[in-house]
Amino acid sequence: MPATNLLAGKTAIITGGTTGIGRAIALAFLAQGCDVAVNHLDLETDKPHLTSLLAEAAALRTADPSAGRLAHLPGDVRDPETGTALVSFCLSQFSASRLDICVSNAGICTFASFLDMPPSLLSNTVRTNLDGAFYVTQAAARQMARHNSPPGGSIIAISSISALVGGGMQTHYTPTKAGVLSLMQSAACALGGYGIRCNALLPGTIRTQLNEEDLADEKKRGYMEGRIPLGRTGEPKDLAGPAVFLACEELSGYVTGAQLLVDGGLFVNLQ
């Protein structure tokens, strides 16, 4: 995405920002002039992704000095303090007086049989996907409502097409994504008076680490692609433009409480 400075001078936090959709959104924001602080778990498996993300961010600024700066902070979104720490870190790291954008992206998805599902998998999925989204949204909203001058900002949560349809191996996952969508709808009502816009992006089948094993099955991938009107599964970068749109006040200043499907037309072809 070319740097046209749609988000020049803005600050953003993104949870789960080193891989997949979160990474693509982070790079798009940087290209648009936004300073970005990403959260990650700091696992050994994360380190190569973080290293390459930092290198890409540096290359962006070398090519275009108006590109935003990148910072990162470890933390588990299941902990209520992680969101608060990420907001404070972002403001101090960039010497900023306001937080403009929050992207709640961190999430997990492990396919499992409903009848055999252990309570631990349900609990971990709910705590990460739904509780984590609530905590970071609340932390961002507190900054945007009480300390931004003037109040305001954009909160974007990554829900899923799974919020709208069922999945036999996702009985623990789809309710969390429906909850994330509902969270944005209710937060839009709660925070509109502060000028804070809250919206959800609903990706369809996007090739990320969460589903790479599933999509490695050529027969299954072919079946899925055959149901998508655009004829392909999505890439993380397909979410970047919609995220920039929702983050930019000039483009989407009257959009809140909305759900934006980014699925290649899959949902309308499921009937």
TrEMBL record:
CDD domains: SDR_c (cd05233). GO terms for molecular function: oxidoreductase activity, acting on the CH-OH group of donors, NAD or NADP as acceptor; quinone binding. GO terms for biological process: fatty acid biosynthetic process; rhamnose catabolic process. The keyword Transmembrane helix does not apply. It comes from the Eukaryota. Pfam families: adh_short_C2 (PF13561). InterPro entries: NAD(P)-bd_dom_sf, SDR_fam. Keywords: NADP, Oxidoreductase, Rhamnose metabolism. The keyword Oxidoreductase applies. Belongs to the short-chain dehydrogenases/reductases (SDR) family. PANTHER family: (3R)-3-HYDROXYACYL-COA DEHYDROGENASE, SHORT-CHAIN DEHYDROGENASES/REDUCTASES FAMILY MEMBER. This is Short-chain dehydrogenase. It comes from Parachaetomium inaequale. The lineage of its organism: Eukaryota, Fungi, Dikarya, Ascomycota, Pezizomycotina.
